[in-house]
Amino acid sequence: MKDHADIPALMAEIGQRAKAASEQLAFATPDAKAQALAAAADAVWARRGEIIAANAQDMAFGRDKGLSRAMMDRLMLDEGRIQGIVDGLRNIAAQPDPVGEVIREWDMPSGLHIRRVRTPLGVIGVIYESRPNVTADAGALCLKAGNAVILRGGSESFHSSRAIHECLVEGLRAAGLPEDAIQLVPTRERAAVQEMLTMTEAIDVIVPRGGKGLVGLVQREARVPVFAHLEGIVHIYIDKAADPAKTLAVVLNAKTRRPGICGAAECLLIHRDIAETLGAEVIFALVEAGVSVHADEALQQLPGTVPATEDDWGREYLDMEIAARVVADQDEAMAHIRRYGSSHTDAILTEDDAAAARFFERLDSAILMRNASTQFADGGEFGMGAEIGIATGKMHARGPVGAEQLTSFKYLVDGDGATRP
After folding, report:
1. Which of 96, 112, 286, 300 is deepest in the core (most CB within 10 A)?
2. Which residues have C-beta within 8 Å of that of residue 187, sequence separation ≥ 6?
3. CATH topology classification for 234-376
């Protein structure tokens, strides 16, 4: 590898090596890929002490940098979270291999037999912030789908990501797959990101995973196609027909379980008919749990709340804060979501089937939920083993991006001497 001072040369070499690896991965056997992931899982667990020690360096860096409590939580690794990484790797290894799957096949009167089959995208660039587990999730999912991947983790997780990456490479080596299939950019220099965004000859798609600033930068400047993972401005609408016990449990979990993740609830919309009863009860429970509730005029009289400003609508707090507003009816709630949402995840709490059906039919977020915590907005919870991100755009991949979403397709056409008249 060349001197890191020469970032363009460094990234060009990484790209060339990834491209070469992708050509071999395109026909790697399902067994080899599964073996690599299983061996990587074993390595992560065996080296968990090293990973936790590396993470301690990152945590110290984060404290010095003044990261928020929620961001520090995203960064932190302990034995339990490492077990989660191991489980994710093993789950992905055990999933059906998407490459070569026949999506559809048919015969034509001309004598042609046509199959549309899944095929790898090629080389994927993943640019992410803070969460070191993304190193394992993204590397594993790209490999499962037959893609080479170039990982550029955040400066905060530099040491943790490197330790996890070493385990992934150990897995590739054990399975006889090219070690360049999963590469980690070995520098914190931001110039490396700028290079990735223009590497059209080496990278087939970029996946940004992080805050609005990162995603906005990538969307503005990338010449490579992008799967956008925008901010999670997640709304929960509490309908007049909501069940009180379910509502309390779901809202508290959606906001407080892990407030720094993209599926955390950021805004409550409360039907006016239950604002003074169930709505007030929910607000009290949030305040009691340590959440700062930014309330509209109708809710500001409730103890412990703070007045909401216009900036609170459409804001991703990623912390123990939430906005709350009373709406006249479901249509007003949906209009608010359309105006201020990010098309990530939105939920309705109701026992009214018609209201739920209307919510599902008339909103177009990537994920819509009923009577369930928005913290389930996660590829692992959707049975994908893990995810590379939540795509909020409408082209190609949408919602949790797992291995299947990291494939394209090609047409295989068989004839028996067929000619076209």
Report:
1. 286
2. 4, 7, 10
3. Aldehyde Dehydrogenase; Chain A, domain 2 (3.40.309)
Q: Which two tokens mark 163?
A: 């330790």
Domains of the chain by residue range: 7-229+401-414, 234-376
DSSP H or E segment with residue 150: strand 148-152
Closest CA to 273 of 371, 347, 350: 350
Q: What is the pLDDT of residues 226-260, one digit of tens each?
A: 887 667 899 999 999 999 999 999 999 999 999 98
Residues 6+ apart with CB under 8 A from 254: 234, 236, 263, 264, 265, 347, 373, 374, 375
318: exposed, middle or buried (C-beta count within 10 Å: 0-12, 13-18, 19+)? buried
pLDDT tens digits, one per residue of 186-222 = 999 999 999 999 999 999 999 988 777 887 888 889 9
Q: Are 286 and 97 in contact (CB under 8 A)?
A: no
Return the closest-CA partner of residue 261 out of 390, 119, 156, 163.
Answer: 390
Contact in structure between 238 and 333 (CB atoms under 8 Å): no
Instruction: Quote the strand ranges of 212-333, DSSP E.
Output: 234-238, 265-271, 292-295, 305-307, 321-327
